[in-house]
Amino acid sequence: MRQSPLVVVAHRLPIDDSVAPDGACEWRRSPGGLVSALHPLLRDTPATWVGWAGGTGPAPHLPDVDGVRMHSVPLTGDELRDHYEGFANATLWPLYHDAVEHPEYHRRWWEAYQRVNQRFAEAAAEVAEPGGLVWVQDYHLQLVPGLLRELRPDLRIGFFLHVPFPPPELFMQLPRRAELLRGMLGADLVGFQRAQAAHNFAQLAAKVLQLPATDRRIAVGDRVVRIGAFPVSIDTAEMSALAARPEVVDRADRLRQDLGGPEHVILSVDRMDYTKGIEQRLKAYRELLASGDVKVRDTVLIQVAVPSRERVARYQILRDRVEHQVGRINGEFGRVGEPAIHYLTQPFDRAELAALYRIADVMAVTPLRDGMNLVAKEYVAARVDDTGALLLSEFAGAAAELPQAYLVNPHDLEGLKQELLRALRATPEDVAARMRAMRDHLRHNDIHAWAGSYLSALEESGSLLGRRVTAG
Ligand code: ADP
Ligand code: G6P
User: pLDDT of 91-120, one tens digit each?
Assistant: First the structure.
């Protein structure tokens, strides 16, 4: 087995095994923040990505993709149901997102969670070079750092949580809270999107495990685990360059013509997820159409909502409700050839997304809770001429970094309507001043800065141990 100095461990591999008729694989760039964040980073580094290739049964052998080795971990149908759809996406996901949907607890799901985490830890132990660095990602794999440390104490281990980490009042609901915390504390560095999350984690380590903890460090036996906020970002330069490409500019012009040359285009791009606030946003839009503040004649709403986690009941219910709502609004307010909402559920390539960002006068990103929200950052990066208004939920991690956006509380329907109107009616000067400031921030705080700051903190956290263990 070939070994690598850098190993990323994430639930999913970032490739699409169905893309290439000639058998070659391509980066999948699946709709999801984790893959979007890590793709630009790994392209430039010799690394192995450990993850699930989709499907059940034996793990397929996959070719390298853009120089990155793909190491697939097999899952059975039961594990997929109980680990991914169950504990990860029906227990942890809703709980970590403010319990906006009720988290479910089942003992069988926890058993599968442990088993799958063990398998991922064993796979990482196999492919990491002696003294190498293993970077474990997200809520599906919270036990991996601890399990991996037992197998390979020579490794430097990082863990990064892409989603919010909840306040103690919520986390304390988890029947297996102590084990989950101990698992994460197997890492040398535990990274979060926001400082508040690191604070929550430190409080819980003290409360549940009685460990000495500050918002920067937690003492675990003879080890010191560093914790901190590392807000994830995007490849800003890449998105800006893509949006400025002549073919993308032409495509955007054509899209605007196809829409009938409206005065305003509002765009939303989400995975179909109940955390994204799609229903609330559509309701606000419906009321603005009903009151006549917005008219189908001159304003177009494009809602892209790519289906996600489709076997999980809540996601099926959400999709049905959204589609019912869209149908109703179009029936009530659309005109022949002029739907009130253009509703699209297809995955798009990066160029098409960039063209959509280019035509959006207002980008409405209004999740009820979101770890970061990379769509908001991609939109800003794509607005190369400093035009365009970003309507952004206060409850997205991105709001902490982009305070110049038109900020909203998506639970406050009246506030949401007013701020959307404000963004639609803003003067070009106001819009440009805000956009310039946000673009400036993202130029300096891009994905490379994120990886650089995380990895250098991981190096430092190693030296805090005061000892180097060599592989035996
Ligand atoms: P989440 O991680 O919850 O899915 P983010 O906004 O952080 O939310 O990340 C979503 C990522 O998925 C972004 O990079 C976005 O460009 C991509 N994406 C969203 N919808 C689509 C789509 N329809 N086609 C292709 N990519 C998409
Ligand atoms: C979020 C999570 C990721 C996940 C992505 C897509 O970004 O933080 O871990 O991969 O959503 O969800 P999916 O269930 O399709 O992997």
Answer: 999 999 999 999 999 999 999 999 999 999
Multiple choice CATH, 236-443, 3.40.980.10, 3.20.20.120, 3.40.50.2000, 3.40.50.800: 3.40.50.2000
- pLDDT tens digits for range 391-421: 999 999 999 999 999 999 999 999 999 999 9
- 370 is known as an active-site residue: yes
**Is 278 close to ligand 2, i.e. is its CB under 6 Å away?**
no
Ranges of beta strands (E only) in 335-430 are: 341-344, 362-365, 389-393, 406-408
Residue located nearest, by CA, to atom 4 of ligand 2: 32
**Residue 408 Cα to ligand 1 middle (Å):** 21
Q: Is the pLDDT of residue 462 over 80?
A: no
Closest residue by Cα to atom 11, ligand 2, is: 32
Q: Is 162 considered catalytic here?
A: yes
Q: Which of 83, 97, 140, 162 is catalytic?
A: 162
Q: Which residues contact 340 (CB under 8 A, 6 or more apart)?
A: 285, 289, 296, 301, 329, 330, 332, 333, 334
Rounded distance from Cα 162 to ligand 2 centre (Å): 9
Helix (H) or strand (E) holding 238: helix 236-244
CA–CA separation, 81 and 138 (whole Å): 18
Residues of the chain with pLDDT > 70, as a percent, come to: 92
Distance from residue 374's CA to the centre of ligand 1 (Å): 7
Q: Where in the chain is the domain with CATH 3.40.50.2000?
A: 4-232+449-460, 236-443
Residue matched to tokens 């000495």 = 212
The pLDDT score that the predictor gives to residue 36 is: 63
Q: Which CATH architecture has domain 4-232+449-460?
A: 3-Layer(aba) Sandwich (3.40)
Question: Which token pair is 468?
Answer: 């180097």
- pLDDT, tens digit, 9 for 90 and up, residues 358-383: 999 999 999 999 999 999 999 999 99
